[in-house]
Amino acid sequence: MEIIEVKNYDELSTVTADLIEKQIKMKEDSVLGLATGSSPVGTYKELIKRNLDFSKVRTINLDEYRGLAPDNKQSYIYFMRDNLFNHVNIKDENINIPNGLAEEGFEECLRYDKCIEDLGGIDLQLLGLGLNGHIGFNEPNTEFVKGTHVVTLSQSTIDANSRFFENYEEIPREAITMGIKSIMDAGHIVLIVNGAKKASILKDALCGPITPNVQASILQLHNNVTIVADKEALSELKKTF
Ligand code: F6R
User: Fold this and answer.
1) Rounded to two decimals, what is the model's pTM?
2) In the annotation, is 139 catalytic?
3) Which of 114, 131, 188, 233 is the least crowded, having the fewest Cβ atoms under 10 Å away?
């Protein structure tokens, strides 16, 4: 595991964009596993600025809310188009994200797992870290769920997501998320973490026991993980050395 300490969010974004740029230049048809949320917004901005060739790049997103249509501004497909896809030359057919409107959740999960398999796996998986240690929407649990599954969002996640919604009632309670095995099968995992509020959970994830109660702790078992984190996020972890 490599830990890159950055001084602020701008540096986190440029360093992470460097890693993604390197991946795309090394393999033009790379499969990028992508995340939404606040953490990667700067990285996507930076990638757009660099005018990279996405014409052969394939993407697979971690998750999508259930019940939100693609034109809903809070849906993750809307987020991805707005923050990245509409600004680079990626082909529409190379974009993959769970269908939040699928009525049969189980069928949609099977379709998504098949989609990951058909892509040949993920070359680089970008991850943010939930305040409760979730990666994707793999919430604290008694097990690590391997494949794509429907998840009931935890109270901590609903509260964290409330900042994006006008009314509390509008926040989806369910999502479809890629499972832990698909994430762990990625060739390279890049976890980006910023801010003091994530310091304690980052320490638990990287130095605590490997437990499904802190889903990100499984990353300790991956042999090619890069953590890009600012000083504030690393502050608790540093106390342990
Ligand atoms: C988003 C996702 C989540 C977020 C995490 C951190 O697709 O899968 O795991 O990465 O909740 O969110 P932010 O970056 O908003 O703090």
Assistant:
1) 0.97
2) yes
3) 114
